[in-house]
Write a structure and sequence with these properties.
With 326 residues, the chain is an alpha/beta fold. It is built from 11 helices and 10 strands. It has one domain: Alpha-Beta Barrel (TIM Barrel), CATH 3.20.20.140. Helices cover 39% and strands 14% of the residues.
């Protein structure tokens, strides 16, 4: 079974690469940037180039969907570069193509806050996609960089689905009807995403799970089955949002960047002031098999389980990563 994770943020070591490979994971969308500017992002990409050299027996870059199949053939983990914010392109439209040429294949238009492109999900008001955002959407469509609206507000997300000439993704979130986290998505968004040919990745990040770390596998898989009914089985996958091997200072960086001097607790509660405990059925990349088994136990067919675990992401990437002939 092809296993593709729509997003992780891991402080990678050789042991963690081995863990992902041994868990049968064939490709992971890794986070290259949260708040980083162009220079910082290029430095992060440079760090990844070194990882590819140092661990060439375990990992390889993914530039096109076919590279995922090659990774599977070579028993390696394919690495897809993505940005959780638009900060790497600053205010320069040319940098979309530059970052694509550096290997970036996915970019969020916002990360929680208002950006130069659109509104984030933690803002009180949602003014939608900006003038610059419209141009970036066109350019991402042209070069073959997938638009991700995981941390974006509702109106901005619905508007982006309409504006984009290619299907977009929400790589890591859950339905808000199941759990009302600010970052989870309404049925209106999910329906529009499915109808437009987009992709939705289910997150195992505890703050976005029903009952948090105590969420059961049965409940999680039931939510996936319900969402398949709403969106269509061909438009859903896994985007675990797995975070491993980080200290608290990294969590604070994720949330607060340089835009505030005080800790930002995400959902507004100091109870969120540390990394949450993972549910017992998903603690690492070795546990993807639990989800596949859980879906089967809920009555999902073997073919549909294969779609959710990776085939849908592969098909989406197969067209999404290709630039348009101009």
């Amino acid at each position: 079974m092809l296993i593709i994770d729509g997003l992780q943020y891991v402080n990678w070591t050789r042991d963690l690469f081995e863990q992902a490979r041994d868990g049968g994971v064939n490709a992971i969308h890794v986070t290259i940037a949260y708040w980083e500017n162009t220079k910082d992002t290029l430095e992060n990409i440079g760090d990844w180039r070194k990882r590819f050299r140092d661990h060439s027996d375990l990992i390889m870059p993914v530039l096109q969907a076919g590279d995922i199949l090659e990774a599977q053939k070579q028993n390696k983990v394919g690495i897809i570069f993505g940005f959780q914010n638009c900060s790497p392109i600053e205010d320069d439209l040319r940098l979309v193509e530059t970052m694509y040429n550096e290997g970036a294949r996915i970019m969020q238009l916002t990360y929680n806050n208002q950006s130069l492109l659109a509104t984030g999900c933690y803002e009180d008001g949602d003014s939608g996609v900006t003038r610059f955002g419209r141009e970036v959407i066109k350019e991402m469509n042209r070069v073959g960089m997938i638009i991700d609206m995981s941390h974006s507000a509702e109106h901005s997300t619905l508007q982006t689905i309409e504006l984009s000439e290619r299907p977009i993704a929400i790589t890591h979130a859950n339905p808000s009807s199941w759990h009302e986290a600010l970052r989870n998505k309404s049925d209106d968004v999910l329906k529009a995403l499915g109808e437009s040919g987009g992709m939705f990745g289910f997150s195992m990040y505890p703050f976005h799970l029903n009952n948090g770390p105590d969420c059961t596998l049965d409940d999680f898989c039931g939510m996936i089955m319900d969402t398949a009914e709403l969106m269509g089985i061909d438009h859903i996958g896994i985007g675990s949002d797995l975070c491993q091997n980080w200290g608290y200072e990294t969590l604070e960086w994720m949330r607060s960047g340089k835009w505030t001097f005080k800790p930002d607790y995400g959902e507004g509660s100091a109870d969120n002031a540390d990394w949450p405990r993972q549910p017992d059925w998903f603690g690492s990349s070795k546990d993807f098999g639990n989800i596949a088994r859980g879906l089967g136990d809920k009555g999902m067919s073997e073919n549909d389980v294969a779609k959710v675990m990776g085939l849908n992401w592969f098909n989406f990437f197969d067209t999404g990563f290709k630039g348009r002939v101009t």
